[in-house]
Design goal:
The structure is a single chain. The protein is mainly alpha-helical and 104 residues long. It has a single domain, classed as Rossmann fold. The chain has 4 helices and 2 strands. Strands 1-2 form a two-stranded parallel sheet. Strand 1, helix 2 and strand 2 form a beta-alpha-beta unit. The N and C termini lie far apart (43 Å). GO terms for molecular function: UDP-glycosyltransferase activity.
C-alpha cells in the first residue's frame, strides 16, 4: 500500500498468505508492478539474474515506464482520497464541537 500511495511501481516477490493474490492485483488488475519471482518457485534459491531482470523491467523498459505512470496516477488518486477523508473527518469533528459548545 505504501508503494502505491507514493506512486512507486512494485517488484512483487510473494512468499505466503495473501501475497500471491496481492501479486495478481498489482500486476494484472492495477498493472503497477511486475513479478520478480513467481510464488510457485518460493522454495527454490533465487538467482541474482531474476532480480536484475525484474529491476530492468521496472526501470528500463517501455512496459516499466507505463507501470510507473500508472503507479503515479494511482498514487495521486489515493493521496487525494485520503486528503478528502481527512478534511471530511475534520469538518465533522468541528461541527460536533461547535454543537457541544453551543449547548453549553
Amino acid at each position: 500500500m505504501e508503494s502505491i500511495t507514493m506512486g512507486v511501481p512494485i517488484g512483487a516477490w510473494p512468499f505466503h498468505s495473501d501475497q500471491p493474490r496481492n501479486t495478481v492485483l498489482i500486476t494484472k488488475v492495477l498493472k503497477v508492478g511486475t513479478v520478480v519471482r513467481d510464488w510457485s518457485c518460493r522454495d527454490e534459491v533465487a538467482a541474482a539474474a531474476m532480480v536484475v531482470e525484474g529491476v530492468k523491467k521496472l526501470m528500463a523498459s517501455e512496459e516499466g515506464e507505463e507501470m510507473r505512470k500508472r503507479a503515479e496516477e494511482l498514487g495521486g488518486a489515493v493521496r487525494r482520497t485520503v486528503a478528502l477523508l481527512v478534511w471530511s473527518l475534520t469538518l465533522s469533528l468541528l461541527i460536533s464541537l461547535d454543537h457541544r459548545v453551543t449547548l453549553l
